[in-house]
Amino acid sequence: MSALISEEYRKMQEELHNDPKYGEASMQHASTVAKLLKQINPSELLDYGAGKGRLGEALKELVTSPLHIRHYDPARPEWSAMPQPAAFVTCIDVLEHIEPELLDNVLDDLQRVTVGHGFFTVHTGPAIKILVDGRNAHLIQRPSEWWLPKLRDRFDLMAFEPVSNGFCVVVTPKTGEQPDNFSETPSKSPPGILRKVLKSLFR
């Protein structure tokens, strides 16, 4: 398995998780995830880069159907084991925190574990938080036009929506049937139930 995080950065992230305000972004998307789960109705969810596990806590209140929630976060010893694939994977405001030289490894691992649907969000600007070494906590600050080809190399993008300071996507395993113009014109992606759900959520 290729490296997903350096030991130095893992320790830095482990310390940051002691801050009660660190890792709150998932809560902003909990209702969106809950509505997608209602549409897709998977039996399990993997929260990839789970932080403090707040998304899972919120979903227990928002989702009434049976749902097994698993967590993966290398900065949390109890959740650091390599995750098994899941029918639904969330990765919320995680990718911009990845060490740039290891991003491809992490995206490849996301591809490995996403065997059904995935809901990913990316913050494209700077974070308020500054790391102890002086770097901004968002190690990668790139626009959606930079991210989308990387995602398309590994997934079919079923939906794209801009959100405050970034974007979200719904993905499925790659089949090669996606229109070639998706990354250039994401707002014209093929209509479908997932896109309709997201359009209604982000009006």
Can you put this structure into words, describing what you see?
With 203 residues, the protein is α/β, with parallel strands linked by helices. The chain is 31% helix and 22% strand. α3 (30-40) crosses α4 (54-62) and α3 packs antiparallel against α7 (193-201). The radius of gyration is 16 Å and the shape is globular.
Anisotropy-based shape: globular
Order of helices and strands: HHHEHEEHEHEEH
Low-confidence stretches: 179-193
Compute the number of strand runs.
Answer: 6
Largest sheet, in brief, is: 6 strands, mixed
The number of helices is 7
Descriptors:
six-stranded mixed sheet, 203 residues, 31% helix, single chain, 7 helices, globular, alpha/beta
Please specify the SSE layout and strand pairing.
Layout: H1 7-16, H2 25-28, H3 30-40, E1 44-48, H4 54-62, E2 68-72, E3 86-92, H5 103-113, E4 114-123, H6 144-152, E5 155-163, E6 166-173, H7 193-201
Parallel strand pairs: 1-2, 1-3, 3-4
Antiparallel strand pairs: 4-6, 5-6
Helix pairs in contact: 3-4, 3-7
What's the short story on this structure?
The protein is an alpha/beta fold and 203 residues long. Helices cover 31% and strands 22% of the residues.
